[in-house]
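Task 17 of the worksheet. Students: predict the tertiary structure of the chain below and write it out as structure tokens. Keep your answer in the requested format; marks are given for formatting as well as content.
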Amino acid sequence: MTLSLYHRFTSEEWSRLRASTPLTLTQEDVAHLQGITERLSLDEVVQVYLPLSRLLSLYVQATQGLHQATRTFLGTTGPKVPYILGIAGSVAVGKSTTARVLQALLARWPSHPRVDLVTTDGFLYPNAVLQERGLMQRKGFPESYDLPRLLEFLAAVKSGAPEAHAPVYSHHAYDIVPGQTQAVRQPEVLILEGLNVLQSGAALGRRPVFVSDFFDFTIYVDADERHIEKWYVERFQMLLRTAFQDPTSYFHSLAGLGEEASRARAKEVWRTINGLNLRENILPTRERAHLVLVKGERHEVREVRLRKL
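Model answer:
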């Protein structure tokens, strides 16, 4: 007998679970939210993300009810505890787009909750530290993150602290922005998006703690590695024609690469860094997710897997 951890749905089967959840995004909104090489359609938002937002709405309500029941039992009052949603997946798989779409949809619930989005990029060590430790070619691997700081941030958020601060990362400068932070002030929902959020752990105090210990629900954005590599190469070449043309960009020195040279460079980076990180650290955490979005060759979600309770 083969046991499965997940209920599996085609995108068409999943879409029927939307029920009466209203569409609150326009095509213009979707165009603004999608990544530079993705083609997210309004139809896919309706088919995939609206049912997911309905599920999350039900889960958030249930979790808030559980917190209230605990406070009633203990006879105490306490600060508002945010519902924390973790989103994991490879570089270039589209997890940032998933995070932005869900943030927009959840913030448009009838109750108009506050939904904050934080990426783990801000918790990378600054380049100077990575260079000192010989980790610049391991940027994005678990050891390149300041895990104690990330765990302290999540502990503050989950304990209901009035304000918690996350460092800010600049993709333009390819580094942490000195002195700049993102303030998180007791949102109803916090979305934490990053490569290794289902894997990363470190000591907090006297015991080992994992980032995923703070999550109420987790999503893994999945696709065949061949497709992800293709998307990464396309994105790299797109950036060469756009953002990298700026003389202040960290990668401006690559702007003059031709078509073949740029493709070869992107493939080398994938082989030695991003693909390696995916296989060694990211993909092995997939089965820990509560929900898996499986993408096809054109970035479309073709299957949804929901963990059995």
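Marker's comment: The helical segments are 11-15, 27-33, 42-74, 95-107, 127-132, 147-158, 225-241, 259-282. Residues 162 and 186 are 6 Å apart (CA to CA).
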